[in-house]
Amino acid sequence: MDPIRVGIIGFGRSGCGIHANAIAHIPEQFTVTAICDLLPERRSHEKFPLAKACASAEEVISDPGVELVVVASYNCTHAVLAEKALLAGKHVLCEKPFGYTTADVDAMIAASKKAGRILQPFQQRRFEEDFQKVREICRSGILGDLTYIRISWPGFARRWDWQTSRRYGGGQLYNNGPHLIDHAMELFENREPERVTARFRNALSSGDAEDEFDVLLQAAGAPDVEIMISATCAFPQDRWLVCGKAGTLRGSGQKLEWKYVDWSRHEKRPLDLHPLEGRRYCSEKLDWQTGVWEAAQNTDAGAGAAPAPKPVLKLYDSLYRAVRLGEPQLITPEQVRKRIAVMEQCYRQNDIPFPRESRS
Ligand SMILES: NC(=O)c1ccc[n+]([C@@H]2O[C@H](COP(=O)([O-])OP(=O)(O)OC[C@H]3O[C@@H](n4cnc5c(N)ncnc54)[C@H](O)[C@@H]3O)[C@@H](O)[C@H]2O)c1
Known about the structure:
Blueprint: E1 4-9, H1 13-23, E2 30-36, E3 52-54, H2 57-61, E4 68-71, H3 78-87, E5 91-94, H4 102-115, E6 119-121, H5 129-140, E7 146-153, H6 172-175, H7 177-187, E8 195-201, E9 212-218, E10 224-229, E11 240-244, E12 247-251, E13 255-260, E14 289-294, H8 309-325, H9 333-349
Parallel strand pairs: 1-2, 1-4, 2-3, 4-5, 5-6, 7-10
Antiparallel strand pairs: 7-11, 8-9, 9-10, 11-12, 12-13, 13-14
Helix pairs in contact: 1-8, 3-4, 4-9, 7-9
The structure holds nicotinamide-adenine-dinucleotide.
Residues 9-15, 18, 36-39, 42, 57, 72-75, 77, 95-96, 122, 124, 175, 307 line the site of nicotinamide-adenine-dinucleotide.
């Protein structure tokens, strides 16, 4: 057994709650050997009593007992710490956001290439079952050419922590946005959007960053993809709505349903400019086919909820295979760079400055 020795920087909801807790389930693949937080009381974990307690990120990055650095500190620190750790010869698992700008990502990728170390973006929600099912149905073609996709994360909640402060790199687009933008770009089949339109609002947040946004991605030959996160929508909405020329899919993390028609089994309808007989409206009976998918267990972890563990373990497994077995990464920095390019455009078109630590 040769588990990868992990040093975690930032030991809060993510560093402790997501990463260390996940690693505790896969001792044959990973173990935590160093824990760092600005707060002294956050430098330990009961499952890893031998882990070194570190007061600074530099201590973790320079520790020869650490092979992989998990960057789970404030958003504004990600790119800088990831680059430093790579140049110090560590593999890096970087929480979202994967930097703020493409310049941030490019510097991380360059450091990873120079050092010959793996740089892994932490986009675990790519492995969520409902998303995987939505993508499978979209790609199957049963809904026909897709016209419009809406991904919604509604909620009605106040927030008052650092994630609401621009100084720390907060704001919903860089907080939960990376997950939705990742899903959207996958459904966009990774094309570069020709037009990105973003609107931001600060409704209930105590800080100066947005807690609501909607983003529209458009390109010729691709469906319009709209993404929204709301802090003032108290009624549940479908997370997924996918419209196509042959059918529609809707649903949530628990349940998806879709219905579609086979147009070749319907009467042809050429343009007829004569007023319809009997003053009728256009109406016809459609021969619907239907499908349903239900999650085996409750996996829905929307905005504000702790993420489900299964996708986290899947990402860790793929990272282990990349580091120890040389297998290709399932989620690459180059893919995630395209998402950061979209997010960068959203902030630039709204004249929102990037945090100081960013390269732009
Ligand atoms: N992938 C996901 O689903 C997911 C979920 C939650 C959080 N996150 C990400 O994890 C990161 C942390 O968020 P959180 O919710 O855990 O916040 P948190 O406030 O719970 O914890 C952050 C911790 O990092 C420490 N910290 C900050 N800067 C540091 C530094 N330079 N050196 C050492 N420690 C430092 C803080 O003291 C704090 O304890 C964020 O980037 C967030 O976007 C990702």
